[in-house]
Design a protein that fits this description.
The chain is of the alpha+beta class. 41% of the residues lie in helices and 10% in strands. It folds into three domains: 66 residues; 85 residues; 120 residues, Nucleotidyltransferase, domain 5, CATH 3.30.420.10. It has twelve helices and seven strands. The strands form three sheets. A three-stranded antiparallel β-sheet has the order 1-3-2. The protein has a two-stranded antiparallel sheet with strand order 4-5. The longest helix is centred in the C-terminal third of the chain and has 17 residues. It comes from Sulfobacillus benefaciens. InterPro entries: Homeodomain-like_sf, Tc1-like_DDE_dom. This is Tc1-like transposase DDE domain-containing protein.
Length: 329
């Protein structure tokens, strides 16, 4: 989301930044902390000045910053919240060369028996799957994977949410243990993605089921939250720092709804700490694995009904562990 053009025109009607007392106190502490990162101090000073209604040009001149740098800081605060704006937004990195459609096609192939496609093997190996993809990718419009390697297939499977939560598991060829085999604990007719979140105050679960998870689906989910919650509430969203969270279209939507959302990015190495992961585990165990073969549209309906059943009698999460030491909270 750092893709803001330097030469963008100056906006005459700037959106005010609303700070709570806690936000104001937090920014003030950061701005006056001698051991704080200089970049965070700089950004805190900019946001405090902007919240007072001072012009961007005046702020830039006082702190000897470029106007575009001040504007980027303010835009981050309006989009993600003042505290998240103090840190660098997770960067999406180089765009993937493999299209989402090609990834979905590869995953859907693992739901089929190789014998149904003319092979003698009854289970997929990464090598056999790569051979099939290379022979058929161009004719099906998936040129981005026409030269795919078994190693890339392994990475695609590892990145797939079904693989992460259990319906797939990896075994070994009975005659040659060096060859990994992709097994399906629960074969579906196609990939589905559940994008959901838990409202901590009410324990309600709001989610959408779609064939893929791109920035468009994430914006759709944010619009769902915007519709569910009162208009004057600040929506704090704890999210994993995935590339789809920082895409240009998402930033544009957040800037169009300033002071509405605040993103709290969980550390990349601690994404499993997000409470919603427990929901995904229950969804896999109680819905996906327990169901027979279903069409994607039928499975989507089953998942949506499952979410509705959860919301009929929501259960608040309670920590049951006992803190050890004063620094544990």
């Amino acid at each position: 989301m750092e893709g803001i053009i330097e030469s963008m025109p100056i906006r005459r009607n700037l959106v005010p930044l609303r700070l709570t007392e806690a936000d104001h106190e937090y920014l003030r502490k950061v701005a006056t902390a001698p051991s704080e990162d200089p970049r965070r101090i700089e950004r805190a000073l900019v946001l405090l000045a902007y919240a007072e209604g001072r012009p961007l040009t005046e702020i830039a001149k006082e702190y000897q910053l470029t106007l575009s740098k001040v504007r980027r800081c303010v835009d981050r605060a309006l989009a993600f919240g003042p505290r998240s704006a103090l840190d660098d937004v997770p960067r999406p990195g180089r765009p993937s060369r493999i299209t989402p459609e090609a990834r979905s096609w590869i995953v859907s192939l693992t739901f089929q028996n190789p014998q149904d496609l003319g092979y003698t093997e009854s289970s997929w190996t990464e090598r056999l799957l790569a051979h099939h993809i290379r022979n058929n990718a161009r004719s099906l419009g998936h040129q981005s994977v026409s030269h795919i390697s078994p190693g890339t297939i392994s990475k695609i499977m590892a990145d797939n949410p079904y693989m992460q939560h259990g319906p797939f598991y990896e075994g070994r060829h009975p005659e040659n243990p060096a060859i990994p085999i992709l097994h399906l604990a629960h074969p579906l007719s196609g990939p589905l993605m559940l994008l959901a979140g838990i409202h901590l105050e009410t324990a309600q679960v709001w989610g959408i089921v779609r064939p893929q998870h791109t920035e468009a689906e994430f914006i759709e989910w944010l619009k769902l939250l915007d519709k569910k919650l009162p208009a004057n509430h600040l929506i704090e969203v704890i999210v994993n720092p995935a590339p789809t969270r920082v895409a240009t279209d998402i930033r544009a939507y957040l800037l169009a709804t300033p002071n509405r959302f605040e993103f709290i990015f969980s550390p990349a190495h601690g994404a499993w700490l997000n409470l919603v992961e427990s929901l995904f585990t229950k969804w896999i165990n109680q819905v996906v694995i327990s169901q027979p073969r279903l069409r994607p549209d039928t499975m989507a309906q089953v998942i949506e009904e499952y979410l509705d059943s959860i919301n009929l009698d929501p259960v608040h999460f309670r920590w049951r562990g006992t803190p050890v030491g004063e620094d544990i909270w």
